[in-house]
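Notebook entry, cofactor series.
This is the third protein in the set we're modelling with a bound small molecule. For this one the ligand is zinc ion. I'm keeping the input format identical across the series so the outputs can be compared line by line later. Sequence and SMILES below, as received.
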Amino acid sequence: MGDYRPCGRGSRCSNPTLDAAGVPAARWGPGAFCASDTRLISEALAGLPRLYTELSLALPRTAQANRDTQVTGSTEAPTPLNLAVEALMRELVMVLVTWEEVCLEPPLPAGATRPGYALARACAALRADLGALLALPRGTQARHGRLVELDGVDAGLDVLRLHHRAGRLLQAPPTIEVRPAPCPACGMYALLLDAATRSTRCQGCRHVISEQQYDAWCGQLTGHGE
Ligand SMILES: [Zn+2]
Ligand SMILES: [Zn+2]
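Returned structure with ligand:
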């Protein structure tokens, strides 16, 4: 058992061994991860391009257009959820393309590549060479403006973490609900509540009011206000 080591997921190993007290511990094996978690990483790589597409579809059209053309100037205020989706999409492409470069040293693309395509290509290439990725020795990468030391275990954990985050974001509950009161500015029944920011916006005139303002407005309408 010379080169055996604990699964890189540590206490979160998906196929743990139980010690005498019944406490789960990482399964030991010859690779960076146990067979069970290696399979989960492979499946996550296979699923990430589809999750990326689903994330892009979750964005409003203005945000999609801005992302594709790198032009700003949308009149829609971005919601925290949309910002989180966009940030995760950028992170997915940055992390997976960087691991592809570190592991496989692919030829530089001839021209600009759409981020979704670059991600799909990186995932397919890394999945085909998963053993090489997970066995990578420690090396320096730039992450969010800092230099960090990462190896193949970090690569596997990156894949699982990003796959989990994408799934969680896509399961986020609907954040928009229709409000029953008319708009205080234009009178249209067109108020929508953004549950993430608790702000209410009129689809007709784009008037925005806070939760307190909406409550006060409802009080006035029903004659119970100040
Ligand atoms: Zn494991
Ligand atoms: Zn209005």
